[in-house]
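Hi D.,

Good news: the full-assembly prediction came through. Inputs first.
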Amino acid sequence: MTRRAWVRLDNASNIFLAAWTDADPKVFRITAEVDDDIDPALLQQALDATFDRYPLYHAVLRRGIFWYYLQDSDLRPTVTPDLRHTCAPLHHPDRKELLFRVVHHHRRISLEVFHALSDGTGALWFLTDLLTAYLALRHPEGRTAAPGQTEDTAAEAPAGTRSPADPPGQAGDQDSSGAPGSPVSPGPSVAPDPALDADPAVDPDPLEGAHPLGLTPDSFVHYFHRTPPPERLGRRVGDISAHGADEPVSRRPGLVALRRVHRVTGTRTPDDRPRLIELSMPAPQVLALAKPHGVPVTLFLTALFFEAVRESSGGLGKSQTIAASVPVNLRQFFPSLSPRNFFATVRVAHTYGRGDDDLGGICRDLAAQFLPETTPEALEAKLRRFLRFERSPLLRIVPRPLKDLLLRLINRANNRGLTVAVSNLGRVVLPEPAEARVRRMLFHVSAVRPQFCSMTHDGVMTISFTSPFQEADHVRAFTRMLTEQGVDVTVAAARVTEQEIEDSPAGVGA
Amino acid sequence: MRRCATCAVDVEGDWRTCPLCGETMEGEPTPDPYPTIALEYSRKVVFRLLFAASAVVILGSLGVQLLFGAGEHGIGVWRTVWLSVVAMWMVVGTAVRKRRNLAKTVVYLVILVGLLCAYWDYLAGWDGWALSYAVPATCGGAILALLLTVRIVRIEVGEHIVHTGLAVLLGLAPLVFLGLGWVREPLPSVACGVLSLLALALLVFTRGAEVRHELGKRLHL
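Then the structure:
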């Protein structure tokens, strides 16, 4: 008799299932570039070991009458070459399949995850453990010599533990070092996030082992459903490190922007693959540009993105408002090592022609909206409200297909109020031996609208733009704004159109 | 690495023109961080259109039948041929569409075939053959098929238990029809009812815990 562990899908994940489409399959990819070509056999070994420690990643998605749920499975993941376009669909209704994949190409290891399973931070933990295990196998000679390696590194965690004992340090928004204490730049300290650090003084995981069936519990319910607020970290603003743009937790469901916002249009890609363009640049150069504005680097980049969209659209036309959805990692305020989704989003907007429209003015405008929304109190109030709505008896008894329809309508209304989305995983510090062997780290997400995702590792900031459209005018404008100010930018892109694919000298598959 | 002078950026890979501005670039190529992936056109859209068109044709064919009278003075044998083709099309379409879940397919087919037979009987003058013979035969056959198939194919209990349960409950419907006096010949209905009750007892006594676990999961509020 097999009675499989199962757990109801968490709050933020439901929207991904409702809003899932062929063009935006709600998949994101985190990539690490190491210093030599990948050995697939060793990567498979590392994946097998890592997979065993993450029961959540064993889950398949099932449909109940009223809710979706994750159920444990016997499926095993296989490492494959990068044979499909990036962020190809991972979830197919009625098919039992794992909700993530690991692919490799030359020096890159990429983890793709269906967003209903995990968020950027959760996936980064998995990738970190995978990298640590792979590099320990690939370079056994460096194992004992690697500095900083301790007994509790993820590669050596005892079998059966769920989450990494030593998660990657996410130092958050890097510009926090730029203006510490400044009233408009109260970003997190560059020191490792206490919520993520394996400091014995901090309860590392208030949720650990809370679920008897092994699948990790829902942090939304743990913190925001009925129970009095558990002790949280009292920091004001931290990194902006989860991602995704369609979650309803950002505000009351159904509430849409009152002002009509500009929406980017274009020619869809031929087979719904995202138009992906990656920019790599020295992080200090970008921080130096952001510093005079005194805002977190994410908001600086968002302001730059707004300017790029305005410039590439030829002045925005009738709708002079640009709005962005910015996800906020809730783990920094509400300690949790659950790798499941645990984030909220904040919407920021700027209307041109109503005051200060230079870059500094936009930065200040965005900060004035963003910072008050990202206090623990504001986030908690918002999420409690949302959970009350989700858990109301009336909504609970609505059958799942109707819930999906309702969420789809809410999502469509929210989409109408957004021009772009941005997401920053912050500065990532990996445990050794991964830290010494990993060069760039990148991440991006399938997108229903132009979006960028950014992260920093080893002094290199990567900004990956994705869009459902073939045109990349906004990326060109964004890049030129950076290069004109002296930033050294390197561009990498995936081939999307028939012409680009035909022009590839190496041919298909290479 | 290649360089675009217009955008003032270095470009990784083997792009002859700048991916940002389209200008021709200079410099040596480097290994491409992304492989070139051929365009993949999904057949999903084609299948979706085919299924939608089939549904329209099937429903249209069934609806049009109402325009013709019943019995010999109607379209007689042509109706039989027409509805047979429609029924076959519907069964194959449903089986293909739901192919990934055998137990669910069987339940869908029992419901669709039962309804179609009843409608056919109604069109032909309500002779009573559908409720007397066709529905009990379909339900009974489905229960037997399911009980055997899940063992032969070794489907995990949790995967089929809810739909097997539904098929068994549907098998009790002929007894209800019998009680309501809608049935001309009681034997097939009684046989199907007894088979359902036996299957139900088998499920409750041998798989009761799994049924409760599975229902608790699927009906979780």
